[in-house]
Predict the 3D structure of the following.
Amino acid sequence: MYTCGGCGRSIELSQSNLGIRCTYCNKKVFYKERPTIAKSLEAR
Ligand SMILES: [Zn+2]
């Protein structure tokens, strides 16, 4: 999954269509969504 840099929507891109534009805002900027990294915050 990728996040559109224009509208922030989550868009599913595959290797074959990485050159496409966002279907919502027509931008071609995407950020790869990273898996949630658990920060080591200790709540005491
Ligand atoms: Zn967009």
